[in-house]
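Input sequence (323 aa), recorded before submission:
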Amino acid sequence: MRKTLTALAVTFACGLASAAYPEKPITIVVPFAAGGPTDKVARDLAEVLRKGLNNQTIVIENVGGAGGTLGAGRVAKAAPDGYTLLLHHIGMATAPALYRTLPFKVMEDFEFLGMINDVPMTLIGRPTLPANNYAELVKWLNDNKGKVNLANAGLGAASHLCGLLFQQKTGIDMTTVPYKGTAPAMTDLLGGQVDIMCDQTTNTTSQIEAGKVKAFAVTTMQPLKTPALAKLPTLDSQGLKGFDVAIWHGLYAPKGTPKAVVDQVNAALRNALKDPEFVKRQEALGAVVVTDNRVSPAEHRKFVEAEIAKWGPAIKAAGQYAD
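Predicted structure, token format:
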């Protein structure tokens, strides 16, 4: 009888806790440097996500390093109370293949809260690059083998993955220059310290529109509708048949977060993804807000599991690992 009463008391207490959620500010950990594409998505989302969470303050905390694994690892070990969340991209699916050891297990240490968007990528170059279109770029790359610097935001970052596949598809090896985030990589690209980079439209669109970088292609099979990128041809149409890379973002909580909290955050996320201003901001950057069933926790989980199976063999075949 005493055990039954104790169990009922615990259940009642949990019910009260979840009913009061959120009572204090929520932290969304972005596992990359401030100013990068994932950071931009997080800050735009936070503005509308809080509307469905009692207008509670949402703090963005940038925990960069190790291709996003440091920040993800921190959230995996955080208290499962709904006050520490993770916003991460495709790195959640590529990390198991890229890293021999990880401070977390993707499919075991997180609650999946729902997908946010799909983000195409663009192949861009420094403003002083001699090439003005993709054909000229390929010629320049071949003429300068061993001298080309390919920037990325760090091992495991979206730009690293895209650059890796670009080298594989073209058969042109380049010197990879990893940075601690997209912002410093972009700074050096603008300054001419590195030659090319493949990065998300959320970070490149404004630079392309302003004419600060040279744009050569988009990485999806279909051209984009964003005005600034509408005339940019695909890599597939320019000879790299089947080249199709889009980066996605999702929201996560530590494993063991109460279902009531998971459901509440997911409901807030669903509403946020319908917010006209958020959709408008994402479309302006070339991103597509998720409207399919991947916004549900269960389908989000299935999608990430499938992505791990998809990218693992390709990454392992390239033989690039981090200790």
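Checked by second reader. The longest strand covers residues 110-125.
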